[in-house]
Design goal:
Structural class: alpha+beta
Strand content: 25-35%
Number of helices: 5
Shape: globular
Radius of gyration: 15 Å
Number of strands: 7
CATH architecture: 3-Layer(aba) Sandwich
CATH class: Alpha Beta
CATH topology: Aminopeptidase
Largest sheet: 4 strands, antiparallel
Helix content: 25-40%
Order of helices and strands: HEHHEEEHEHEE
Number of domains: 1
CATH superfamily: Gcn5-related N-acetyltransferase (GNAT)
Length: 182
């Protein structure tokens, strides 16, 4: 069985890069996502139901099964050199679930940190956002203390446009990239 035949069914286009397979996330990655989220370093700057296994599972299942506007959703990531090992995901979804802005995000297992994989995957997603979905801009709200994710945003051409408070009152750096910026 080929990697492609295993990955069918999400409805999102493949966004592969020279080092990565980036395919629409499906329930096949549910357990891998849950394990990744249980690493306190991975979710250190991200609010979520990480401590309650039942609520956490429901949360991730909802994100996988939810209907997003065409071309938007979550993509799972694997390295071409190890296509059976889940590396993480990237997302392009309506901001706070409703828009009108569209938010980009990424989360990788700790063993994948520091090798440029998040930037490579996010760059492919930005290209998809502008060329395929034809979005005017993409935003990212990143916990102000999360310097690694802020560097990813800058590497993919996003500019810091201000600070905002998230729903819990934490300070987030708002990044934006517009189609004309590229």
């Amino acid at each position: 069985m080929s990697f492609d035949s295993i990955r069918e069914g999400s409805g999102l286009p493949a966004l592969d890069t020279p080092r990565l397979f980036i395919r629409g996330r499906t329930l096949a990655e549910l357990e891998s996502c849950l394990v990744m989220d249980r690493d306190p370093e991975v979710t250190r700057f991200i609010k979520g139901p990480w401590g309650d296994p039942v609520v956490h599972r429901r949360f991730v299942e909802f994100r996988i099964n939810r209907a997003y506007p065409p071309g938007l959703g979550y993509w799972s990531i694997w390295e071409r050199s190890a296509p059976d090992v889940f590396v993480g995901w990237v997302m392009l979804i309506p901001d706070h679930g409703v828009g009108p802005d569209v938010e980009i995000g990424w989360r990788l297992v700790r063993t994948a940190w520091g090798r440029g994989l998040a930037s490579e995957a996010a760059r492919a997603l930005v290209q998809h956002a502008f060329q395929t979905v034809r979005l005017a801009r993409v935003i990212a709200d990143i916990d102000a203390r999360n310097t690694a994710s802020r560097r990813v945003a800058e590497k993919i051409g996003m500019r810091l446009v201000g600070m905002v408070d998230d729903e819990g009152g934490a300070s987030c750096a708002r990044y934006r990239v517009e189609r004309g910026d590229r």
